[in-house]
Amino acid sequence: MVAKDFSSRVKILVLVLLVLCLCFTPSCKKSTPASPLEPSGQQAAGDTQSPASETEKPATVGETPAVEKPGTELAPINIELPRPMFVGTPQPTQVANLEKPLGKPRPPFLAPVGTKNVASGKKVSASDEEPIIGEIEMITDGDKEAADGSYVELGPFLQHVTIDLGAKHEVYAIVIWHYHKQAQVYFDVVVQIADDADFITNVKTVFNNDIDNSAGLGVGQDMHYVETNEGKLIDTKGLQGRYVRLYSKGNNANDLNHYIEVEVYGKPL
Q1: Domain spanning 116-268, CATH architecture
Q2: For the segment 210-258, what is each residue's pLDDT rounded down to a tens digit?
Q3: Which of 224, 235, 236, 229 is nearest to 260 (CA)?
Q4: Is 55 within 8 Å of 95 (Cβ atoms)?
Q5: Which residues contact 260 (CB under 8 A, 6 or more apart)?
Q6: Where are the domains of the chain?
Q7: Which one, 19, 71, 82, 156, has the greatest CB density within 10 A?
């Protein structure tokens, strides 16, 4: 009988000890792992300090335009526009890769203070030495009107004109007026800058809308555009060179090539 009571007491004691163990033993649950978006050692969301990036894109030479150099004082270049010869911007038909008209005046173009038209009165040569209408020198004479007697008409197919700036310049913009008496689109418009008159040394293409390489200068990524009295402004991002060459290969109306004026805005080195 005594052994039976002792056995019962032992069982009760074991049960009491088991209950105490369950009450005071820490939970065996695993700790919650760190979120995969915030691994241990990384900054928490909302931290304003950027982590040391190993994926940042390295700066590409020539990627930043020269006009954006730190400390450069900029000002709008003064482009005097000729009178418009037609109202609105009629859209020529059947022209591929044609940009939409802006529908408002072109915004001012900023360049370093002191930038001016360095092509004014400069020597011009052309692949067609005997234009059908006008004289080659008229391309840099300052007359940008579209009236008869103000433009040069070169022969059909691929033609080019070359302007000698007289010395090497840092060029920020080139503005071209082909013919704005009517809403026309010129094809294979390619503009290049180089150090030499033969366009062998340091040649840089700043505009090319030749979508099928029919001019043999490479396939261009720029768009066709409708001629207006504003001309076509090309941002040349401060590239350096002495000679500017402009190609064209007819227009949507005929195979002839026209130039009223070309202005080159830059500063001598």
Answers
A1: Sandwich (2.60)
A2: 999 999 999 999 999 999 999 999 999 999 999 999 999 999 999 999 9
A3: 229
A4: no
A5: 82, 139, 143, 144, 145, 146, 150, 151, 152, 177, 178, 179, 180
A6: 116-268
A7: 82
